[in-house]
C-alpha cells in the first residue's frame, strides 16, 4: 500500500512548475532591476560629464583673463559642480574625487571626477549581488579645454593736443571703455592678465615723476619741467650711437661719467605740454587708469612721434628699471606675452625737436676809427658765426617749421617709430579721428597700423565705437590663441 502511494506521488507532476516559475520571476526582477540601475548610472554619468564640461569651460575662460592659484581653480570647479549637480546624490563623491591638471605649455585645463550609485534593484532579496555583480556602479569622465595662456601689455597712446579741446569728453569715454573691457570692474586686480599704460601726448609727453631721470637729472641735466620729447643719435668722436629710432635704454651711454647731456631725452615745455595729462606706466589698477583718464586735458601742438616713442618705451623691457617693478614690461621673447599699442590722433604732426650742436653767436667785434662831428670816434661792429656748443650746455629746442605735410620731419619720424615698434613685435592699432581720410594724420595712422588694424572715426560716437571694437579685438586675439 505505502509503496504504491509513493510510486503514484513520483508519477504526479502537476505542481512542479510553481518553484520553477518562482525562480524565473526572481531572475526577471533582478534583470529588470539591473537595467534600471544601469540606466540610472548612465544618466548620472551624463550629468557628471555635463558638469565637468561646464566647469572646465568656466575655468578656461577665467584662466584666459585672470591669473589663478590652484586653490582658486579648485574652488571654482567645486562651485560649478554645486551649481550643476545640486540635487544629485553623488555630488559629494564627485567633489571628493575631483582632480584637475593645468598645462601652461599647451594652454589646456583637464578636469576629472568619478562617483558611484548604490544598486537598489540588482540586489533584490540579497541575491542580485551574488548572481549579477556589485552592490554599486561606479562611473567617471573628464574634459580637456584650451585656454589662453597669454598676458597682455597694451599702450594706449592718445592725442591731447589743443585741437582736441572740444572732443575731450569723447576721448575720455572711449579710453575708459578700453579699460572697462580689458580690466572688468568685477575682476580682482591681483588676478588680471592685462596691463595698460596711458600715454597722452601733445608737443611732448608729461612723464611726471619719471621725467627727471630720463633727462639726466642724476647728472644735473634735468629741469623743472615734466615734459619730455625725443633724443638724437650721438657721436662721441669714436663711435656713432644710432639710438634715435630705437628703444635703447635712456642711460645707454657708459663711456664717460657723467654721460654727455646730448645722450638723454629732451625737454619740450617751452612749446606746450599738457600739465594735467600725465603718463601712467603699465598697470592693472583700473582705478588709477580711469582717474588719469578723467584728468586728461587738451593743450599744446602735435608731435605724434613723441607719443609713439613713449608708448613704445612703456612696453620695452629696456625701460624696466625706469618704472616701478609692477609696471616693468616683459621681455620681447616671452612667449606668454602679447604686446599691443592703440595710437590715436585727430590732426597733422607739426612739431619736432632737435639738439643743435652749433649756435649762431657773437664771436668777435670789429672796430674802426671814424672822423665824425669834428673829432675821431671809435665804431665797433659785432661779428657773429656758427660755433660748437659745449656738451654741458646743449639745450633742446623746438622746430616749429615742420609744416603739416606727410613728408615733414615730425611725420617721417612718427612713421619710423611705428615701423620700429612693429619690428619689435608690437601689434599697432591706428585711429584717425576726423572726416578727411586722406589727411596727413589719417595717412600716418594708416601707415602706423598693423595690417587690418586701421580705424577712422568721424564723430564722437565713432571714436568710442572704434576704441571699443579695438579692445574687443584685442580680447578675442589673446583669448583665441
UniProtKB/TrEMBL annotation:
The alphabetical list of record keywords is:
Membrane, Transmembrane, Transmembrane helix
Q: Which residues belong to any copy of the Putative Flp pilus-assembly TadG-like N-terminal domain?
A: 15-61
Q: Looking at the keywords, is Hydrolase present?
A: no
TM regions (residue ranges): 17-36
Coiled-coil parts of chain: none
InterPro entries in the record: Tad_N, vWFA_dom_sf
Source organism superkingdom = Bacteria
Q: Does the keyword Transmembrane apply?
A: yes
Name of the protein described by the UniProt record: Flp pilus assembly protein TadG
Q: Which organism is it from?
A: Roseibium alexandrii
Amino acid at each position: 500500500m505505502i509503496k504504491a502511494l509513493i510510486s503514484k506521488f513520483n508519477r504526479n507532476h502537476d505542481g512542479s512548475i510553481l518553484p520553477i516559475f518562482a525562480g524565473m520571476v526572481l531572475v526577471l526582477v533582478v534583470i529588470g532591476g539591473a537595467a534600471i540601475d544601469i540606466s540610472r548610472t548612465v544618466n548620472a554619468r551624463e550629468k557628471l560629464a555635463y558638469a565637468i564640461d561646464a566647469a572646465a569651460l568656466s575655468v578656461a575662460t577665467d584662466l584666459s583673463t585672470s591669473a589663478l592659484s590652484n586653490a582658486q581653480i579648485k574652488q571654482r570647479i567645486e562651485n560649478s559642480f554645486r551649481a550643476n549637480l545640486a540635487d544629485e546624490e553623488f555630488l559629494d563623491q564627485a567633489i571628493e574625487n575631483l582632480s584637475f591638471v593645468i598645462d601652461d605649455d599647451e594652454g589646456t585645463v583637464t578636469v576629472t571626477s568619478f562617483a558611484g550609485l548604490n544598486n537598489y534593484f540588482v540586489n533584490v532579496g540579497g541575491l542580485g549581488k551574488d548572481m549579477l555583480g556589485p552592490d554599486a556602479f561606479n562611473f567617471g569622465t573628464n574634459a580637456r579645454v584650451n585656454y589662453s595662456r597669454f598676458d597682455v601689455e597694451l599702450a594706449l597712446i592718445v592725442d591731447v593736443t589743443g585741437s582736441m579741446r572740444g572732443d575731450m569728453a569723447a576721448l575720455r569715454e572711449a579710453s575708459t571703455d578700453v579699460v572697462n573691457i580689458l580690466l572688468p570692474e568685477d575682476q580682482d586686480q591681483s588676478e588680471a592678465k592685462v596691463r595698460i599704460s596711458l600715454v597722452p601726448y601733445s608737443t611732448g609727453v608729461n612723464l611726471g615723476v619719471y621725467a627727471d631721470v630720463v633727462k639726466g637729472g642724476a647728472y644735473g641735466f634735468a629741469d623743472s619741467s615734466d615734459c619730455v620729447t625725443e633724443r638724437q643719435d650721438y657721436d662721441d668722436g669714436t663711435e656713432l650711437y644710432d639710438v634715435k629710432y630705437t628703444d635703447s635704454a635712456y642711460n645707454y651711454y657708459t663711456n664717460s661719467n657723467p654721460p654727455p647731456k646730448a645722450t638723454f631725452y629732451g625737454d619740450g615745455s617751452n612749446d606746450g605740454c599738457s600739465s594735467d595729462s600725465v603718463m601712467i606706466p603699465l598697470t592693472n589698477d583700473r582705478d588709477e587708469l580711469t582717474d588719469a583718464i578723467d584728468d586728461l586735458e587738451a593743450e599744446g601742438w602735435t608731435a605724434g612721434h613723441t607719443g609713439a616713442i613713449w608708448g613704445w618705451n612703456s612696453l620695452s623691457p629696456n625701460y624696466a628699471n625706469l618704472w616701478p617693478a609692477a609696471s616693468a614690461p616683459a621681455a620681447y621673447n616671452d612667449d606668454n606675452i602679447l604686446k599691443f599699442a592703440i595710437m590715436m590722433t585727430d590732426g597733422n604732426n607739426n612739431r619736432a625737436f632737435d639738439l643743435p650742436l652749433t649756435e649762431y653767436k657773437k664771436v668777435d667785434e670789429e672796430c674802426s676809427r671814424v672822423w665824425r662831428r669834428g673829432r675821431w670816434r671809435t665804431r665797433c661792429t659785432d661779428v657773429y658765426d656758427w660755433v660748437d656748443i659745449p656738451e654741458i650746455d646743449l639745450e633742446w629746442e623746438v622746430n616749429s617749421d615742420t609744416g603739416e605735410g606727410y613728408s615733414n620731419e615730425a611725420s617721417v619720424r612718427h612713421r619710423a617709430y611705428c615701423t620700429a615698434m612693429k619690428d619689435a613685435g608690437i601689434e599697432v592699432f591706428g585711429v584717425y579721428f576726423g572726416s578727411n581720410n586722406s589727411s596727413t594724420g589719417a595717412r600716418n595712422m594708416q601707415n602706423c597700423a598693423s595690417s587690418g588694424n586701421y580705424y577712422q572715426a568721424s564723430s564722437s560716437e565713432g571714436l568710442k565705437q572704434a576704441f571699443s571694437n579695438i579692445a574687443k579685438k584685442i580680447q578675442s586675439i589673446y583669448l583665441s590663441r
